[in-house]
Design goal:
Blueprint: H1 2-10, H2 18-25, H3 29-41, E1 45-49, E2 53-58, H4 65-71, E3 80-87, H5 90-99, E4 106-113, E5 131-138, H6 150-166, E6 171-173, E7 177-180, E8 183-194, E9 199-209, H7 226-230, H8 236-257, H9 264-270, E10 277-280, E11 287-294, E12 300-304, E13 307-311
Parallel strand pairs: 3-4
Antiparallel strand pairs: 1-2, 4-5, 5-9, 6-7, 7-8, 8-9, 10-11, 11-12, 12-13
Helix pairs in contact: 1-4, 2-3, 6-8
Bound molecules: biotin (BTN).
Length: 317
């Protein structure tokens, strides 16, 4: 009922009368009043004026299934939300849910992870009340060899979502790190379970530094948070919503072609390495060149001394 009540307050331009809330939710006035008290205790600022009703003035930075569900505007991404105050890793939970038959569009969110996973076997520091740690479960209809492009689709959605929601100049560092003013603010870990001709599921795990006030010495020169960049707190639930709204748009375009042709130009416009000197950390032999954007298949086009090279995996610095 909290979700429906919050949604009713959010969807109204002004006041919502107690009577209207009772009718919409099918509950008594006392029940409405009790939920209002609970919301106020959680930090929601709600004005109550006699003869007019209730009005939502501001929401706290709460992460809960109710908060996320009440602000959701997406059509399928996050239709089901699984929220944990603490879990091992949202990717691990999303994979478990997938194995148990969970549906396409299930979103797993946690306030804290005890074993957050990064790329290349690294960890992902996930303290409480600071970040967004979330994983989307997808059952895409594209071919298995096309699925790796989904991580670029997610990177675009995060960069665009941050731009729209915070106004910060977020960009993508190929293939899928999100950076602001040269420092990493978000990492993405995509994992998949496929057969030769069929994708069982894909999980896209996204970790965003939102409210971190500082970083350990080892990473303070390369990592940042939205709070540090903006100079004020950013509400996590609103940003989550903004990101998945963008994701739906890009995902549909990607799936309609099975490649990035329809969104490649926009990806390139977000690419911080575009027309810049890059060093490709090829395990056989690292080399340097100028990044010229991505192909329809998501490879990075690098103009090297000996000609054009396409980078499909590995790290670029
Ligand atoms: C990277 O190394 O850049 C990728 C980091 C991905 C971290 C996120 S946090 C949510 C999801 N759950 C995890 O355990 N990892 C991803």
């Amino acid at each position: 009922m909290k979700t429906e009540l919050l949604a009713a307050l959010r969807n109204s331009d002004g006041y919502v009368s107690g009577q209207e809330l009772c009718e919409t939710l099918g509950v008594s006035r006392t029940a409405v009043w009790k939920v209002m008290q609970k919301l106020k205790a959680e930090g929601y600022e709600i004005e109550a004026v006699s003869n007019k009703g209730y009005r939502l003035i501001s929401s706290p930075d709460v992460l809960s299934a109710e908060e996320l569900e009440s602000i959701r505007k997406t059509s399928w991404a996050g239709q089901k939300i699984v929220y944990y105050d603490v879990t091992d890793s949202t990717n691990v939970q999303a994979k478990r849910i997938a194995e148990e038959g969970g549906m396409h569009g299930t979103l797993v969110v946690a306030d804290r992870q005890e074993s957050g996973k990064g790329r290349r076997g690294r960890g992902w520091d996930s303290p409480k009340n600071t970040g967004i740690f979330m994983t989307m479960l997808l059952r895409p209809t594209v071919k298995p060899d096309e699925a790796s492009m989904l991580t670029l689709v997610a990177a675009m959605a995060v960069a665009k979502g941050i731009r729209l929601y915070t106004g910060l100049p977020a960009g993508v560092k190929w293939p899928n790190d999100i950076v602001i003013n040269g420092k990493k603010v978000c990492g993405i870990l995509t994992e998949m379970n496929t057969e030769i001709e069929y994708i069982n599921y894909v999980v896209i795990g996204i970790g965003i530094n939102v409210l971190n006030q500082s970083f350990p010495d080892e990473i303070k020169d390369v990592a940042t948070s939205l709070l540090l960049e903006k100079g004020e707190p950013v509400k996590r639930a609103g940003l989550i919503e903004a990101i998945w709204e963008q994701f739906e748009i890009y995902y549909d375009k990607f799936c309609s072609k099975g490649n990035l042709s329809e969104i490649k130009e926009e990806y390139n416009s977000l690419l911080v390495n575009l027309d810049r000197q890059v060093r490709v950390l090829d395990p056989r032999e690292p080399y340097e060149g100028t990044a010229r954007g991505i192909t329809d298949g998501g490879e990075l086009i690098v103009e090297a001394e000996d000609g054009i090279r396409l980078v499909s995996s590995g790290e670029v610095s």
